[in-house]
């Protein structure tokens, strides 16, 4: 079975700082990888996904993630965060025909 | 984009009550629906997976007689928490996906269940 590990529980950044949130997964086969965001009081929204091809994936709102197969990692990055990026970020993985398995989430707080 | 509607958003009821939560896909056919439970400051834990017209598949440790799931159509799944007790208080989130496993899951807004 798959499992997902997110290293940071809570990250606090100033506006314009660069962001990198770690995500590692454990599964021996082919996986699909996702990052979801949950803004305060809202439902989960898909930020970006990786199925195959270019390991550098660009998502909405200036986010990107890089799949490094050898490291079983799928870290989320953004060059310059804004106050509106304050949210909970979840990394998720699934294999073929299996439901998403989520990491514990990382809370991002962006301060002015 | 795809929209999943979950209702109600908040339920407060007495211990022993049964509570039904609805999950609807509004603009796509949800061949598969998932029910998750989220405890405070923790991740989403998958409770069960249901395919339209079939019995739900429950994760280990989830009581199927406690959490009844019905996925009668391609746009509606319901979760009924039977004889709810305070320990069932949690945030329940449904998710729906189309026919293919490489399609992303779309999430409802969640239901906060509080059992007094």
Written description of the protein model:
- The complex is a heterodimer of chains A (112) and B (116).
- With 112 residues, chain A is mainly β.
- In chain A, 0% of the residues lie in helices and 55% in strands.
- Chain A has strands at residues 3-6, 10-14, 19-21, 23-26, 31-38, 44-50, 56-58, 64-68, 73-78, 87-95, 101-102, 106-111.
- In chain A, strand 5 and strand 6 (44-50) form a beta hairpin.
- Chain A is globular.
- Helix content of chain B is 0%, strand content 52%.
- In chain B, the strands form two sheets. In chain B, strands 2, 4, 5, 6, 9, 10 and 11 form a seven-stranded mixed sheet that branches. In chain B, strands 1-3-8-7 form a four-stranded antiparallel sheet, with no helix packed on it.
- The chains are: A mainly beta (112), B mainly beta (116).
- At the A-B interface, strand 5, strand 6 and strand 11 of A face strand 4, strand 5 and strand 10 of B.
Low-confidence stretches of chain A: none
What characteristic shape of chain B results from the CA principal axes? globular
Structural class of chain B: mainly beta
Q: What is the typical, i.e. mean, pLDDT of chain B?
A: 90
From the helix content, strand content and strand pairing of chain A, which structural class follows? mainly beta
Helix percentage range of chain A: under 10%
Euclidean distance between termini CA atoms of chain A: 41 Å
How far apart are the termini of chain B?
A: 37 Å
Number of strands of chain A: 12
Q: Number of helix segments of chain B? A: 0
Largest sheet of chain A: 6 strands, mixed
Shape of chain A from CA axes? globular
Order of helices and strands of chain A: EEEEEEEEEEEE
Overall pLDDT metric of chain A: 92
Helix coverage percent of residues of chain B? under 10%
Task: Indicate the topology.
The complex is a heterodimer of chains A (112) and B (116).
Chain A lengths: L2 E4 L3 E5 L4 E3 L1 E4 L4 E8 L5 E7 L5 E3 L5 E5 L4 E6 L8 E9 L5 E2 L3 E6 L1
Parallel strand pairs in A: 2-12
Antiparallel strand pairs in A: 1-4, 3-9, 5-6, 5-10, 7-8, 8-9, 10-11, 10-12
Chain B lengths: L3 E4 L2 E4 L5 E7 L6 E7 L5 E8 L5 E2 L8 E7 L2 E6 L8 E8 L8 E2 L3 E5 L1
Parallel strand pairs in B: 2-11
Antiparallel strand pairs in B: 1-3, 3-8, 4-5, 4-9, 5-6, 7-8, 9-10, 9-11
